């Protein structure tokens, strides 16, 4: 792997680590509206999204119970990650409407792969002399 690709892998790994493990940012927002997007008919993959006003987070994808628990105009506290602004939790007063998921712990997998690539432990390229370089596998 060339130097630029290794530096890019290191930079992305650092950004993911900062996003996953730095402290959350909490904002007090007001629910503006609800949107429901229906997925394919055979999977029943509906997407429930709450839209907010009054902060840097515009919307969050939530589950069905959080979607129905909040009404337009409700004031909520939204916990977000610092780098990519992903929603980690929503609270109304002391009630947790949407709880944080295990996203932070699953981020360890791509962080580890990117760090291994950045330090040269994983090589994604083959040499020009290798006959298999034009084939998958």
UniProtKB/TrEMBL annotation:
What residue intervals traverse the membrane? Answer: 105-124
User: Organism's domain of life?
Assistant: Bacteria
Protein name, entry field: Uncharacterized protein
User: Which UniProt keyword terms apply here?
Assistant: Membrane, Transmembrane, Transmembrane helix
């Amino acid at each position: 792997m060339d130097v630029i690709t290794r530096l890019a892998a290191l930079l992305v790994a650092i950004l993911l680590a900062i996003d996953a493990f730095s402290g959350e940012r909490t904002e007090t927002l007001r629910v503006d509206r609800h949107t429901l997007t229906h997925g394919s008919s055979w999977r029943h993959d509906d997407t429930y999204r709450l839209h907010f006003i009054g902060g840097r987070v515009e919307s969050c994808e939530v589950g069905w119970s959080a979607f129905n628990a909040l009404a337009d105009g409700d004031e909520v506290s939204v916990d977000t990650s610092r780098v990519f602004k992903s929603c980690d939790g929503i609270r109304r007063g002391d009630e947790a409407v949407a709880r944080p998921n295990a996203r932070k712990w699953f981020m360890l997998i791509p962080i580890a792969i990117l760090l291994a690539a950045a330090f040269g432990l994983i090589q994604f390229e083959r040499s020009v002399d290798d006959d298999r370089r034009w084939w998958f596998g």
